[in-house]
Amino acid sequence: MLNAVGLANPGVERVAEHELPWLSQRLQRARIIVNVAGATVADYVRVIERLTTLQAITAFEVNALLSKHERGRARVRRGARGLAELVRACRRASTRPLTVKLSPVLPDIPAMARVARDEGAEAVSLVNTIAVCSTNDSATAAAG
Questions:
Q1: Contacts of 113 (CB under 8 A, 6+ apart)
Q2: What is the pLDDT of residues 59-79, one digit of tens each?
Q3: What separation in angstroms does the CA of 107 have from each of 22, 102, 111, 122, 143?
Q4: What percent of the chain has pLDDT over 90?
């Protein structure tokens, strides 16, 4: 369902002023990693700059997966150069560790992971959605 509707959220100001304080008061031992998405590099930077000073945040996950729902706005460029530009800008903006979320369907995941590392990411994450299709009922039940 999430993939069908995009990355709905209340916006960076609401997250900074309400959601993160609420979470940090209730989660004593949990670590908060904020997933950052945008249509442009400036969008990502704006979110990170607004949130990076908040003590509740342990790290940022830069969502380099491109949404199908970004109509009418310049998109983050695809490919190694676009990823390098995105990670470099986010690294400059952040005082926290960065994880870069890459698509599991990239033709050369290791090469893109190296780009992310070379531009300052401490980690990569690769799995967004796994769909399991089977005619075997037990496999379907286990996946659901």
A1: 100, 102, 124
A2: 999 998 754 444 444 455 668
A3: 40, 11, 9, 22, 26
A4: 42
